[in-house]
Amino acid sequence: METAEFLVIGAGVTGLSFANFLQNEARARDRRAPEIAILEADDQPGGYCKTVEQDGFVWDYSGHFFHFKHPEIEAWLRARMPGQDIRTVEKRSYIRYRGEDIDFPFQKNIHQLPREDFIDCLVELYFRDEGRDPDAEPRSFQDMLYRRLGRGIADRFLIPYNEKLYACDLDALDKDAMGRFFPHADVADIIGNMRRADNQSYNATFSYPLGGAIQYINALLYDLPDSMLSYGERLVGLDLSKRVAVTSRRRIGFRHLVASAPFPQLAAMSGLDYDDRAFSWNKVLVFNLGFDRKGPRDPHWIYVPDRERCFYRVGFYDNIMDGDRMSLYVEIGADQGAALDTGAMRERVLADLRAEGIVTDHQLVSWHSVVLDPAYVHITRASMAETRRLSSVLAAAGVYPAGRYGGWTYCSIEDNMIEARGLARTFAELL
User: Fold this and answer.
1) Are residues 254 and 125 in the same domain?
2) Owning domain of residue 329
3) What is the pTM of this model?
4) pLDDT-derived band of residue 65, with 50, 70 and 90 as boundaries?
């Protein structure tokens, strides 16, 4: 049986970052070089951070834009991307509401709504605590929206949009399901924004290489030897007591295992007794669409809360990359068990794009689709409790779930790298 001191499951951002940071930490501390093996079920690296080049268009597996808050990480990546044109972009995002574009975030720009909608939102915001105990803890994500912002704002955008995104009842989600990524605003923020716009959010600027998000994956591969990675090799089981991983090819003994595989899958492969009802998620069907000529020139992406439209978000690669042909990504949320007819959905997408005036007499010249499954995990009280309980059992056996899906959480791409760096620093002490 083969052995590996550090076995990494998944050659996406989390797994590749961990391998890099562990090597770097060992060098910085003058420790011995760690023995690392990375297994990837797919035949190429990147996970969902893959790029498609087709007919002159550059598309990702959905919109993957890097919102760096740690300049040292961005600088480290850029040093490993020689020759790449990397744009730093000030985000322009809007909400499509009744045929008009409202600045994002919705709750800070209700003054841009039609007069009656604006008055309703403002009145409901002011009287949001009427009939409620203001000190009571919100019992769900939906309850949090009503308590903080009132029914006018919640019912016009936040609830329909997020129901389309998560493809579930928001009353089932934990109040902090989106964590720091939810753009909170109090009454003073909302009123103040009517006179002086301040629409800053965690992703007010983002970086994007013209070669697509895969260039960041290539940067993470820059210092890793090819021999470290094994593609087309899937983890199928874990013997926690013996610290043995069973793959589609072999058995590997390990000392430590870092896994970005979806948490419930990892728990099942480890033979743990757990409540599978605690874990749910949505899937997202992504269409990448290339047209013969330019479309709207301003937006980077548009949020679409209208329940009559099949998609919840439309992004414009051409407005990020200064392209002369409209290049879109279109995202559709669906229940985890939903059967998706890609052909029928593509026609529905095109019809809805025309209805919104995004596509007029444009001709579709190229397209690509992919299903992300899981896409957004449903963070509930039950999922958080089971994740905490099972993670302690796994850690006792040297297994460490990490990343958005490994940790069963909502986080950014950079957050995955920060988590991987923290793990690497902990393990470097053991070398």
Assistant:
1) no
2) 282-372
3) 0.94
4) confident
